[in-house]
């Protein structure tokens, strides 16, 4: 029963003398108080309801935003990866190859000379017992439109061992500066040296203009 109906019924009982004035006032106060509490609870419940809906909307929107970002990144990576391309050439004098890596960077590498074993004229820089030096003189050219660097080089032998470059003086030419920046069309010459085991056979030489993305230059030994 609504508050208005309760009050009217209470008024009717008073008029007929069913209840006294004191009973009327007591009951009326109780009815009015209970109505105020119901109204307050309704307002609070409404606030909680709409607050909960608002929070869920914010969380849902945030999750949707994350999903969209992931999708966009995935599409961008997929699209860019399709343009990344390794280049392959012969591990021999005159061998040349071009690779395209992230950002549209294109690098061409040409082998000018291979010395195996290489000898250093510096008596203090000699290979360890059981090892030998191998040097490769190269020209690296930026054939793309974006600035890049010479990158880094790795030599792999047929037993699966991979060697990083070593800096050796007295081998007849300046070491290649891997940190040198090359603008579009720019090129640099230098020598990369490796200390490898005696008897090891080269499988490939790799130049990596961008260690964080695909698109490398490989020179395969035939």
What's the topology here?
Blueprint: H1 3-15, H2 21-81, E1 87-90, E2 96-101, E3 105-118, E4 131-142, E5 148-149, E6 152-157, E7 162-164, E8 181-182, E9 187-197, E10 202-208, E11 217-220
Parallel strand pairs: 1-11
Antiparallel strand pairs: 2-3, 3-4, 4-9, 5-8, 6-7, 6-10, 10-11
Helix pairs in contact: 1-2
Task: Provide a descriptive summary of the structure in words.
This protein is an alpha+beta fold and 222 residues long. It has 2 domains: 79 residues; 134 residues, Immunoglobulin-like (Sandwich). It has 2 helices and 11 strands; from the N terminus they run ααβββββββββββ. The strands form 3 sheets. The protein has a 5-stranded mixed sheet with strand order 1-11-10-6-7, with no helix packed on it. A 4-stranded antiparallel sheet has the order 2-3-4-9, with no helix packed on it. A hairpin with a 4-residue loop joins strand 6 and strand 7. Helix 1 runs antiparallel to helix 2. It is rod-shaped and about 130 Å long. About 3% of the residues have low confidence.
Percent of residues in beta strands: 25-35%
- CATH topology grouping of the largest domain: Immunoglobulin-like
- CATH architecture classification name of the largest domain: Sandwich
Shape: rod-shaped
CA radius of gyration is 41 Å
Distance between the termini: 98 Å
CATH class type of the largest domain: Mainly Beta
Q: Taking strands numbered 1, 2, ... along the chain, how are they ordered across the largest sheet?
A: 1-11-10-6-7
Structure annotation, total helices: 2
- Provide the domain count: 2
Q: Please identify the structural class as seen in this structure.
A: alpha+beta
- Helical coverage, percent range: 25-40%
Order of helices and strands: HHEEEEEEEEEEE
Total strands: the figure is 11
**Tell me about the biggest sheet?**
5 strands, mixed
Unreliable stretches (pLDDT < 50, length at least 5) are 77-82
Let me know the average pLDDT: 81
């Amino acid at each position: 029963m609504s508050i208005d109906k309760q009050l009217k019924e209470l008024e009717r009982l008073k008029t007929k003398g069913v209840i006294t004035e004191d009973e009327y006032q007591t009951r009326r106060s109780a009815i009015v108080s209970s109505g105020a509490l119901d109204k307050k609870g309704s307002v609070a419940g409404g606030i909680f309801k709409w607050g909960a809906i608002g929070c869920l909307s914010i969380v849902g929107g945030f999750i949707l935003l994350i999903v969209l970002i992931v999708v966009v990144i995935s599409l961008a990576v997929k699209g860019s990866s399709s343009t990344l391309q390794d280049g392959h050439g012969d591990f021999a004098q005159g061998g040349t190859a071009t690779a395209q890596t992230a950002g549209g960077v294109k690098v061409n590498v040409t082998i000018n000379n291979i010395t195996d074993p290489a000898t250093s004229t510096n008596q203090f820089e000699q290979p360890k017992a059981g090892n030998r030096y191998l040097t490769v003189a190269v020209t690296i050219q930026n054939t793309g439109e974006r600035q890049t660097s010479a990158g880094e080089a790795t030599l792999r032998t047929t037993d699966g061992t991979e060697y990083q470059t070593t800096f050796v003086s007295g081998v007849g030419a300046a070491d290649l500066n891997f940190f040198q920046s090359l603008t579009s069309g720019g090129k640099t010459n230098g020598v990369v040296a490796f200390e490898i085991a005696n008897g090891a056979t080269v499988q490939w030489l790799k130049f990596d203009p961008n260690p964080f993305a695909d698109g490398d230059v490989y020179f395969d030994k035939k």
